[in-house]
Amino acid sequence: MLLEVKDLVVSFPTPDGLVEAVRGVSFAVGAGKTLGVVGESGSGKSVTAQTVIGLTRGARVSGSALFEGRDLLKMSRDQLRQVRGSKIGVVFQDPLSSLHPFYKVGWQIEEAIRAHEKVSRAEARRRAVELLGLVGIPHPARRVDDYPHQFSGGMRQRAMIAIALALNPSLVIADEPTTALDVTVQAQVLELMKRLQAELGMAIIMITHDLGIIADMADEVMIMYAGKVMETASRHDLYYEPHHPYTTGLLGSLPQSGHEGERLVPIPGQPPSLIGPPPGCPFWPRCGFAMPKCRLEVPPLRAVPGAPGHTSACWLPLELTGYSVEVDAARHLAAVAEGATAVATASGAEEAQP
Ligand SMILES: Nc1ncnc2c1ncn2[C@@H]1O[C@H](COP(=O)(O)OP(=O)(O)O)[C@@H](O)[C@H]1O
Ligand code: SF4
Ligand SMILES: [Mg+2]
Q1: Residue 246 Cα to ligand 1 middle (Å)
Q2: pLDDT tens across 32-55, in order?
Q3: How far is the CA of 38 from the centre of ligand 2 (A)?
Q4: Which atom of ligand 2 is nearest to the CA of 294?
Q5: 88 and 50 in one domain?
Q6: I need a surface site. Which of 139, 150, 189, 352 has the fewest CB within 10 A?
Q7: Domains: count for the chain
Q8: Per-residue pLDDT averaged across 248-255, rounded?
Q9: Can you give the residue range of the structural domain that contains 315?
Q10: How far is CA 121 from CA 85, 112, 238, 350, in A?
């Protein structure tokens, strides 16, 4: 494995109490593979990624993150800075916060290169032009001398990708890289990342709140909620054989091709506070299948039979996978047999019974 994160726990002491942002997260990314990390806002995706690359300040951290065999969580600041940029490239949501407004785009790419490699300014500039061409900026030899504000939002995100790729990293962490872009540009940037991965062979961790983004990109998907992993699966199993009600809830809130005009069903309710989160399954207050046990005992991640790598942190019987009215009816029966009183519908919505 290129990156292997085990039992990552991250919390922030605040005046209101300890924010338990990441609560025992483990995952692995193979060389050249794409891991999609998906969950609603506040589920701990960014804190997970930022902790791995040493960018969380003031946090209490435990666990390990082996990258090419070395534990990133044990590295000094200087060592991490060396790894970041050269071996791990990072793309954030908002390129304006990462690109300096006062410096030409090309100059910033040159600096990124020269921070890690002893090359002449002329050579760095040659590579900056080449990189801008690689990420699809038209007339790169001319645009290299533009300032960030002269680029469109999509072009700025391409420039960020150029910087992330400047030193040929083996891993790129992209945190909501297209969230600030309109839908057409979003699709172009994702297409670009896919093409670059095919050409350059780097692994990608693609973080998003939108399951649709990774639909034709991720090899594996990890669903996060309230600082925990809810489900892991191959892309195929995640879309066609999901187990966790949170996953089916996210799928239910996606626009379905072929079902245009059908009302989307958002998951009712809000994620729990991460200051003193309640016991049991973190999803139970929103779950249409919640059983008495769910409120008391935290469901561990268990292996779904017959599907390597497919795990789910839910007390429902593990063989009940799928995304259909029939499977939901079976889930409902299983939940009632365990004492559940809520009525689940196919959409995952819930009506409490009197
Ligand atoms: N520096 C910080 N101090 C306190 N709480 C934080 C800090 N950074 C993040 N959090 C909290 O940690 C939780 C997870 O945040 P984050 O990882 O950014 O979520 P996501 O990326 O999934 O939207 C949130 O409740 C957020 O408010
Ligand atoms: S059935 Fe229980 S364990 Fe599974 S998601 Fe719902 S509340 Fe959590
Ligand atoms: Mg985030």
Answers
A1: 20
A2: 999 999 999 999 999 999 999 999
A3: 18
A4: 2
A5: yes
A6: 352
A7: 2
A8: 85
A9: 241-255+279-351
A10: 18, 12, 47, 62
Asked if residue 217 and residue 174 are part of one domain, the reply reads yes
Q: Which two tokens stand for residue 86?
A: 């050269």
Residues 208 and 322 in one domain: no
Mean pLDDT of 286-310: 96
User: Has residue 189 been placed in a domain?
Assistant: yes
Tokens of 353: 């019974």
Taking CA atoms only, the protein residue closest to ligand 2 atom 4 is: 314
CB 306 within 8 A of CB 249: no
> How many A from CA of 46 to the centre of ligand 3?
4
pLDDT digits (tens, 9 = 90+) for 90-141: 998 876 667 899 999 999 999 999 999 999 999 999 999 999 999 999 999 9
Q: Dump pLDDT digits (tens) for 259-296.
A: 555 557 788 899 999 999 889 999 999 999 999 999 99
**Is 15 inside a domain boundary?**
no
What is the torsion angle, in degrees rounded to the nearest 10, for the CA atoms of residue 241, residue 243, residue 249 and residue 251?
-20
CA distance 346 to 354: 20
Give the predicted TM-score (pTM) of the model.
Answer: 0.93
For ligand 1, atom 16, name the residue with the nearest CA.
44
d(CA 22, CA 10): 5
Extract the tokens encoding 76: 């000094």
